[in-house]
Amino acid sequence: MERIFMTLKYSPGKNWQKGKPISKQNLHSHRMYHQELLEKGKILIGGAFIKTDEGINILRVNNREEAVAIAEKDPAVKDKILQVEIQPLYVVFKSADAEQLDMKII
Questions:
Q1: Would you state the pLDDT for residue 106?
Q2: Checking DSSP bridges between strand 4-12 and strand 55-61, what pairing results, if any?
Q3: Phi (first) and psi of residue 11, to 5 degrees
Q4: Distance between CA 4 and CA 12 in Å, rounded?
Q5: For residue 99, what are the CA distances in angstroms to 35, 41, 54, 89, 94?
Q6: What is the Cα–Cα distance from 14 to 81, expressed in whole angstroms?
Q7: Is the pLDDT of residue 94 over 70?
Q8: Phi, psi at residue 46, to the nearest 5°?
Q9: pLDDT, tens only, 77-93
């Protein structure tokens, strides 16, 4: 089965502590969860945007439902510290290094 790429774009949720930067938010369990996903090969790359309170992860999954399940299990999403938008990634071009990835090009 070919896997697809999905993006998880994170932004402040209802329980975000206004006035505190992302580095001061209670996101330890979020980071630990994402480290586990990285080790399992589900996350290819991820991080926070500079000068915003948003972040993004690029996932390699079997289908959209798997991406939704990953997002719903995120402790920061469950605690409403973060909200998440899930979108498929339409791969138009890739580097030579990406040839090693098991990926579907649309």
A1: 40
A2: antiparallel
A3: -145, 165
A4: 26
A5: 24, 16, 29, 16, 8
A6: 6
A7: no
A8: -170, 165
A9: 999 999 999 999 887 76
pLDDT at residue 96 tops 80: no
Tokens of 11: 């932004």
| Domains in the chain with CATH codes | 4-100 (3.30.70.1060)
Q: What is the 3-state secondary structure (H, E, C) of the chain?
A: CCCEEEEEEEEECCCCCCCCCHHHCCCHHHHHHHHHHHHCCCEEEEEECCCCCCEEEEEEECCHHHHHHHHHHCHHHHCCCEEEEEEECCCCCCCHHHHHCCCCCC
* Under 8 Å between Cβ of 80 and 14: yes
Look up residue 89 and give its two tokens: 């990634």
Question: Cα 65 from chain centroid?
Answer: 14
pLDDT digits (tens, 9 = 90+) for 1-49: 567 899 999 999 999 999 998 889 999 999 999 999 999 989 988 999 9
